[in-house]
Write a structure and sequence with these properties.
The protein is of the alpha/beta class. Helix content is 54%, strand content 12%. The strands form 2 sheets. The protein has a 6-stranded parallel sheet with strand order 1-8-5-4-2-3, with helices on both faces. Strands 6-7 form a two-stranded antiparallel sheet. Helix 6 runs parallel beside helix 8, helix 9 packs across helix 10 and helix 10 packs across helix 13. It is globular and about 60 Å long. The termini are far apart. 52% of the residues are buried.
């Protein structure tokens, strides 16, 4: 019997320039006491805009700078604030770690949750899960929630002023969305939400990829020049909503298992999205599909500065065997690929991807 089809998404998603000036208008029904779990940069980028949205309202706003990682201890610290101050609403402001900390805090204290991303480096704002770490920064677990966030507000003006490297990493993370979901759909694998994959999810995933190809380069140039353009808004939506909801409801495959394998070697490597992008190319090689598709993905990656070689993600040939073995561990999403993948097969595909990347880069120098 096939799994029942399942589709989940944030209760409300809002995006645009000066969207944060409407924060309170969209969150006022959640309660009167707010805890803002912020990164340093997130606080600086959003505080004045959010405060403007509250106007003369009689509300309590507690801004708390979190300790840079979504750790067990940090989540417990935020939980104590919620209980001691009788907070109604938890708000995550910043990148993935701040957002994951806020989600977990809201979940454990049974509070409403709003998300304000200040970079577009991952699709964490819209997903129904968090990555939790131990206090020594080692991996602890994935925490899955019964619901996606109540409210996600993305201010395009804030994103336009963020470092371009985060937008690039976000495009890398989003790049894997369609190809991983497509692989899961073919093998009737479950989505991240543990349900059957809907046609709606696949349509969002495909639109995510098409948007990256169409607008990715122009969006990058926009951020490099601190411009809010239609192309930037399109990529913000692709990185945040289309990728987040698409991955949640479409599932993961080789690209994200490759990232998990990369983290296992314990070396300083590229950002999450950069590794996922390289892993997407590896997956396409394993699938042995049409060359035109592989070339289109590779050309896009080069155009926005995503890595085509192992060196660019901080790895050497000597690391590949360990990465491949860890990527193929029991329970990893790589096993959603049709025909499955052995560590040796993955190792060869990674090395082939690297060599093809070097050949491509060398050809551009001639």
């Amino acid at each position: 019997m096939k799994d029942l089809l399942l589709m989940r998404a944030p209760l409300k998603y809002i995006q645009g320039k000066d969207a944060l000036k409407k924060f309170y208008e969209n969150a006022k029904d959640f309660g009167k006491k707010y805890l803002f779990v912020c990164s340093h940069s997130g606080y600086n980028a959003t505080h004045d805009l959010i405060e403007e949205s509250f106007g003369s309202s009689k509300t309590v706003r507690h801004y708390e700078i979190f300790n840079r990682i979504s750790s067990v201890g940090e989540i417990k610290r935020m939980e104590k604030i919620v209980k001691d101050e009788k907070i109604d609403v938890v708000v995550g402001i910043g990148g993935g770690s701040a957002i994951d900390t806020a989600k977990a805090t809201a979940y454990y204290t049974h509070r409403r949750i709003a998300i304000v991303p200040t970079v577009c480096a991952t699709d964490a704002p819209c997903t129904g899960l968090s990555v939790i770490y131990n206090d020594d920064h080692s991996f602890n677990s994935y925490l899955f929630y019964p619901n996606n966030p109540d409210l996600v507000i993305v201010d395009s003006g804030v994103i336009s002023k963020s470092p371009a490297k985060f937008l690039v990493a976000g495009m890398g993370d989003a790049l894997g969305t369609y190809f991983e979901a497509r692989a899961c759909y073919k093998t009737h694998s479950k989505s991240l939400e543990n349900g059957g994959i809907t046609l709606s999810a696949m349509a969002l995933c495909k639109l995510c990829y098409e948007t990256l190809i169409k607008d990715g380069k122009k969006a990058l140039v926009s951020v490099e020049n601190k411009l809010v353009t239609p192309e930037l808004d399109a990529i913000i939506e692709a990185n945040t909503y289309l990728s987040g909801v698409g991955a949640d409801n479409g599932g993961l495959c080789v690209a994200h298992s490759f990232y998990n394998g990369v983290t296992s070697v314990g070396k300083k490597t590229a950002m999450h999205g950069n590794c996922v992008a390289f892993g997407t190319l590896v997956q396409l090689l394993l699938e042995n599909g049409c060359s035109e598709e592989y070339n289109e993905v590779r050309d896009f990656m080069y155009s926005v500065g995503l890595p085509l070689t192992l060196e660019e993600i901080g790895l050497e040939d000597s690391d590949v065997e360990a990465v491949a073995k860890a990527s193929c561990a029991a329970g990893e999403s790589i096993h959603n690929l049709s025909g499955d993948v052995t560590p040796n097969e993955l190792k060869d595909a990674i090395i082939l991807c690297d060599r093809l990347g070097h050949e491509y880069l060398n050809s551009l120098k001639k």
